[in-house]
């Protein structure tokens, strides 16, 4: 099987409401969808959702990098040779993990369809049967976040990820308000997205949260401040998770050596796709570290790819891949059974792409042959 063409679509995915995190407000999610065509008529879909603040990639740079650099490399290549494809991409350009993830995911989708197997069977087989889904609360006023949490509980959610990171005291008020509203038994995870900047400010906040039964605090300090994570972990009994600070194996080696986190958040857009994500999970497992598969708020394509990794690894104990639930229109049909996700057994990613919707949401496109 050989790749004959790669279609590249620059897409705006519409959100039901703005998605607000510590470093920005998103009124839609700009993403790149790729479609590879093979000489056997098999199609594979992939996705790159770049984030300048996390990986240094922009919507436009990712599109043109795929068009002019990475996609031409793969023409004529066998999409089932995952290791060779990554070696070729890595030998051509440094980093740019979201761009590489798009092609990695598309190759796995095509390979699964060729072998008539779900992607998780290609990376270790299915380990988990289902995962609970966590609802993500965007940054808002304390009572607004509390009311949203209460409303989502009525829809069946029993865990929440709170986005914070604008101001320490205000963030504490937000977390207190949500805990008071949902009661003591509902799981709450706090994602700071680097917003508390340093360990001193983070410890001030964390000391105010010690009686609120928080599952974990995610990335309170700047991404490169591994030593700050070490200090926080040593001074609190609330578990800490590293996200933006762990993109690939180099950072994970330092995290393991310094015992800088209780848990790591693997994102396909940070590490380069399905194959690198699976490798990170194994690396973490050898160090006794639990993992989560997280999201950049991808469509059904990128979200399904993350779920296939999560379902195949025993040390991946949580997922936060809720992008499709936030879109008023999506290009795929990934199914959720709130409050759970249960992957189907269809070959490849198991996602049907609506080509008409893809065309309607496309801002600009090209094809490499």
UniProtKB/TrEMBL annotation:
One term of GO molecular function: racemase and epimerase activity, acting on amino acids and derivatives
Alphabetic keyword roster: Isomerase, Magnesium, Metal-binding
Note on how the cofactor is bound: Binds 1 Mg(2+) ion per subunit.
Annotated InterPro entries: Dipeptide_epimerase (IPR034603), Enolase-like_C_sf (IPR036849), Enolase-like_N (IPR029017), Enolase_C-like (IPR029065), Mandelate_racemase_C (IPR013342), Mandelate_racemase_N_dom (IPR013341)
UniProt-listed SUPFAM superfamilies: Enolase C-terminal domain-like, Enolase N-terminal domain-like
PANTHER family xrefs: O-SUCCINYLBENZOATE SYNTHASE (PTHR48073:SF2), O-SUCCINYLBENZOATE SYNTHASE-RELATED (PTHR48073)
Similarity annotation: Belongs to the mandelate racemase/muconate lactonizing enzyme family.
Protein name, as recorded: Dipeptide epimerase
């Amino acid at each position: 099987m050989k790749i004959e063409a790669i279609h590249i679509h620059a897409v705006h995915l519409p959100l039901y409401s703005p998605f607000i995190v510590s470093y920005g407000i998103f009124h839609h999610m700009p993403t790149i969808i790729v479609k590879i065509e093979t000489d056997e008529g098999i199609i594979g879909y992939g996705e790159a959702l770049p984030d300048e603040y996390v990986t240094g990639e922009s919507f436009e740079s990712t599109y043109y990098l795929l068009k002019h650099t990475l996609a031409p490399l793969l023409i004529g290549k066998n999409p089932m040779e995952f290791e060779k494809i990554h070696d070729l991409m890595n030998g051509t350009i440094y980093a740019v993990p979201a761009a590489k993830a798009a092609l990695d995911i598309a190759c796995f989708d095509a390979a699964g369809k060729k072998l008539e197997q779900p992607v998780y069977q290609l990376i270790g087989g299915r380990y988990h049967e289902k995962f609970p889904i966590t609802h993500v609360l965007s940054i808002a006023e304390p009572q607004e976040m509390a009311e949203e949490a209460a409303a989502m509980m009525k829809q069946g959610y029993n865990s929440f990820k709170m986005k914070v990171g604008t101001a320490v005291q205000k963030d504490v008020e937000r977390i207190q308000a949500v805990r008071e509203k949902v009661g003591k038994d509902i799981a709450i995870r706090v994602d700071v997205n680097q917003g508390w900047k340093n360990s001193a400010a983070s410890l001030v906040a964390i000391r105010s949260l010690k009686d609120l039964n928080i599952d974990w605090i995610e990335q309170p300090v700047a991404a490169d401040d591994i030593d700050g994570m070490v200090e926080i972990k040593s001074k609190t009994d609330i578990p800490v998770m590293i996200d933006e600070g762990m993109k690939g194996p180099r950072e994970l080696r330092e995290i393991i050596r310094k015992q800088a986190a209780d848990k790591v958040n693997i994102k396909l857009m940070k590490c380069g796709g399905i194959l690198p994500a699976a490798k990170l999970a194994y690396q973490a497992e050898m160090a006794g570290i639990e993992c989560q598969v997280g999201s950049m708020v991808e469509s059904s394509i990128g979200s399904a790819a993350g779920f296939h990794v999560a379902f195949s690894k025993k040390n991946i104990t949580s997922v936060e891949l809720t992008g499709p639930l936030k879109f008023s229109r999506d290009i795929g049909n990934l199914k959720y059974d709130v409050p759970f996700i249960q992957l189907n057994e269809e070959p490849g990613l198991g996602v049907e792409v609506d080509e008409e919707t893809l065309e309607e949401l496309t801002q600009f496109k090209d094809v490499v042959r």
